[in-house]
Amino acid sequence: MKKGIHPDYREVVFHDLTSDYKFVTRSTVQTKDTMEFEGKTYPLVKIEVSSQSHPFYTGKNVLLDTTGRVDKFRKRYGK
């Protein structure tokens, strides 16, 4: 394999902002944020939906609208 062309594959903390759930996995995602998790410092990736907050996995039909798209749709097509 050629050297210098592959991204850095390392352990990263993903933080689900909706449910405040954090987990460590390996990824090539680039991020500038870091976080101390279980006594070790990892790069941090903030996400809005994970298996802990997604309605399919939790069994709850909760409408998560973090960008206002549902309200915009209802305002435009509402009646």
UniProtKB/TrEMBL annotation:
Originating species: Fibrella aestuarina BUZ 2
What is this protein's record name? Large ribosomal subunit protein bL31B
Provide a Gene Ontology MF annotation, just one: structural constituent of ribosome
Q: Please name the InterPro entries in this protein's record.
A: Ribosomal_bL28/bL31-like_sf, Ribosomal_bL31, Ribosomal_bL31_B, Ribosomal_bL31_sf
Which HAMAP family does the protein's record reference?
A: Ribosomal_bL31_2
Any idea which UniProt keywords this protein has?
Ribonucleoprotein, Ribosomal protein
Which protein family is named in the record?
Belongs to the bacterial ribosomal protein bL31 family. Type B subfamily.
GO BP terms: namely: translation
